[in-house]
Amino acid sequence: MKKNISLRIIKNQFIFLSIILIYSCTPMSKITYLNEHEKRDSEWDIPLLKDSKAGEEIVIRKHKITKNINTESIEKTPPKHILDIGDVLVVKVLSLDETTTNFFNVDNNVNSPNTSVTAANIYLNGFTINQDGMIEIPYIGEVYVLNKTIDSAKKAIEKKGAEYFKEATVIVKLGNFNITVLGEINNPNTYPIYKDNISIFEAIALAGDITDYGNLTKVKIIRTEQNKKKVYKIDLTKENIINSEFYYLKNNDLIYIEPLKYRSFRKSQSQVLLSAITTAAVVINLYLRINE
User: Fold this and answer.
1) Would you say 143 and 135 are in contact if contact means Cβ atoms under 8 Å apart?
2) Considering the domain boundaries, does residue 68 fall inside one?
3) Mean pLDDT of successive 10-residue segments in the chain (292 residues)?
4) Residue 200 within any structural domain of the chain
5) Which of 17, 27, 141, 228 counts the highest number of beta carbons within 10 A?
6) CATH, residue 195
7) What gap in Å lies between CA 149 and CA 81, rounded to an integer?
8) Which of 174, 195, 228 is the last residue of a domain?
9) Is residue 67 part of a domain?
10) Which range of residues forms the domain containing residue 184?
């Protein structure tokens, strides 16, 4: 009788520990990038009759088909940055005429080779796009650059200042391309980007990758559009992220990685299991000794 009770206790303890072990495991689908082929239903109009007089096809039914995302349709060229309110432009004028060069660059310290480029330096000496979509350049005046690409803004500045400089080269760069990565990331921070574009995976790599407790299926991007903040939810386990508008990040994008459910439990799962096994062994041992 005692032996049966002991075996029953051991069995119950084993079941309990098995439940804890299974419950503490994280599905691979939630911690692996691009592991799922996204399928979607597309509704297609199937023309079955044609009116020869009107020359129009008459649709009399619709048919749904399922197709996989075609990864070959990925854009090879990243989208160009569209200037928005608050963007800071670094404008540099180069000319064989030293007077022209000094005339336009005298106060723009970011153009000096002896000055270290910092975020504060760029902000203080760059040209910030104001609420009216303008930047104000000394001697040239206001130039409208809102919703333009960098190349278009360069041409607008060249056109506006054509009467002041001849045979000069104008260089325009975005001075405050920053992205912020927060949440379940190894190195959360705001990172300055010194190139024209960056993908979301490059940004995650820059921040030291997502931790073991980050949920790849629940990632938020907070993006500024037309001077308003919008929150978008994306899934990094799906391949269609490569084709989405969120694959390449925009200036001042904030990426937030949500934690997995029961994160605090998983964080100490090994200690929990070890403690549970030890406790079970002690209880069973004491019970057997008392009933000998």
Assistant:
1) yes
2) no
3) 57 60 57 62 42 45 42 64 91 78 58 57 86 89 93 92 79 92 96 91 95 91 88 92 91 93 57 67 69 64
4) yes
5) 17
6) 3.10.560.10
7) 6
8) 174
9) no
10) 178-261
Q: How many residues does the chain have?
A: 292
Gap between the Cα atoms of 46 and 29, Å rounded: 37
Q: Give the whole-angstrom CA distance, residue 199 versus residue 249.
A: 6
Sign of CA dihedral 45, 46, 48, 51: positive
Q: Give residue 280's identity as a one-letter amino acid code.
A: A
Give the angle 262-37-22 at the CA atoms, nearest 5°: 30
253 and 277 belong to one structural domain: no
Global model pTM greater than 0.85: no
Residue listed under structure tokens 């990038």: 33
Q: How far is CA 215 from CA 132, 159, 172, 189, 258, in A?
A: 40, 50, 39, 19, 6
State the Cα torsion 128-130-134-139 to the nearest 10°: -60
How far apart, in whole angstroms, are the C-alpha atoms of residue 282 and residue 292?
A: 16
HSE on the CB side for 119, CA within 13 Å?
Answer: 8
In terms of domains, do 139 and 185 share one? no
> Which tokens in the block code for residue 32?
């692996």
Q: Kindly report the backbone phi and psi dihedral angles of residue 286, in degrees, each rounded to the nearest multiple of 5, phi listed first.
A: -65, -40
Instruction: Determine the Cα–Cα distance for residues 56 and 30; give it in Å rounded to an integer.
Output: 49
The structure tokens listed for 110 are: 């970011």
Same domain membership, residue 135 and residue 190:
no
Do residues 121 and 138 share a domain?
A: yes
CB-based burial of residue 62 (10 Å sphere; 0-12 exposed, 13-18 middle, 19+ buried)?
Answer: exposed
Q: State the CB neighbour count (10 A cutoff) for residue 282.
A: 10
